[in-house]
Amino acid sequence: MVTGWHIVSPTLKGPVIRLPEPRYVQVSLRQPYSELQHIYSRLNVIMPTLVPLLFGTMTFGFEGKNGVRTSSLTQCQGILDVFFAHGQTELDTARMYAEGTTEQILSELNLKGATIDTKVYPVKPGDHSPVNLRNTFLTSLQHLKRDKIRVLYLHAPDRSVPFEDTLREVNNLYKEGKIEIFGLSNFAAWEVAEVVGICKAKGYVLPKIYQAMYNAITREIETELVPCCRKFGIRLVIYNPLAGGLFAGKVTSIDDQTSDGRFNPSSNMGKMYRARYLQEGYFNALELLKDVAEKHNLRLTEIALRWCQHHSILDVSDGIILGASSAAQLKQNCEDSAKGPLSQEVVDALDEACKIVKAHGSTPLYWR
């Protein structure tokens, strides 16, 4: 196998493989993993083994807004620069993040050619009607100071609006060149199949990316959603790989009233994360993992990220969203994500921890 190659910008559009000879080959990450293996083998180059990272910007925003942990433009830029220095180029945001101010912060930063994906959440019934969806999305473009973005996600289903009406408007935005890719998030697997069916029947742009909650001890997507996405050629991008920061070990009990981080009980985001992860099953699972981590001289966050990379259902065509409140934190997480597989003892412990969470009925639904 030749060794004089590297991958530039492993984004959804596909990496560019540079060979020793002066030729380039574009590979689409939308292709099934088996097809990617065949292509790399035919080119006689080594296939990348790491799942691409995306940076989740949810904690960027104006001071005092819901969930904001970083409001300084200098600090935000420093965090992104660390991300870019590790060869990553995909940024994730949403209209609702930080009460709409995350997108404004991003518009003031040097994104160095990175792609931006945003999402429209149905805060109230009717938000995904054609008129409301368009108006909300155009507000995103205005705040981002862009004419177009890469991915527009429906952040969750708005079941008060017929899917066909919503999808028709998404298709209009796509035909107008305002979005490159259509995505879904927090939809049930059967709803994903319904969306695909409608889009095929009507000739609308198909969903090609799905953003899901997933980590080593929260695996609800594996049974139905993952097979659904694989069947329809939909890329999986996962959020909460560290269980919202629970793997950091700063929150140690259900009654912990920490005012720092995502579990701050005084913020709406904190209340959401407390309801999601501050459950008996999760803390029992972490107690098991702490012993294994200490035995192998590993941090829990490192274990969680390496599991996502090497032992989960993800492959190199998917993605992992990392968040961070400091450049140092992101640097560590990027470095941990680049490390190799875990020992079988650690993997077995994670499997057992996941069973503990499920046995306690603590696992949150992957759909909303």
From TrEMBL:
<dbReference type="InterPro" id="IPR050523">
    <property type="entry name" value="AKR_Detox_Biosynth"/>
</dbReference>
<keyword id="KW-0560">Oxidoreductase</keyword>
<dbReference type="Pfam" id="PF00248">
    <property type="entry name" value="Aldo_ket_red"/>
</dbReference>
<protein>
    <submittedName>
        <fullName>Aldo/keto reductase</fullName>
    </submittedName>
</protein>
<dbReference type="InterPro" id="IPR036812">
    <property type="entry name" value="NAD(P)_OxRdtase_dom_sf"/>
</dbReference>
<feature type="domain" description="NADP-dependent oxidoreductase">
    <location>
        <begin position="53"/>
        <end position="353"/>
    </location>
</feature>
<dbReference type="InterPro" id="IPR023210">
    <property type="entry name" value="NADP_OxRdtase_dom"/>
</dbReference>
<dbReference type="GO" id="GO:0016491">
    <property type="term" value="F:oxidoreductase activity"/>
</dbReference>
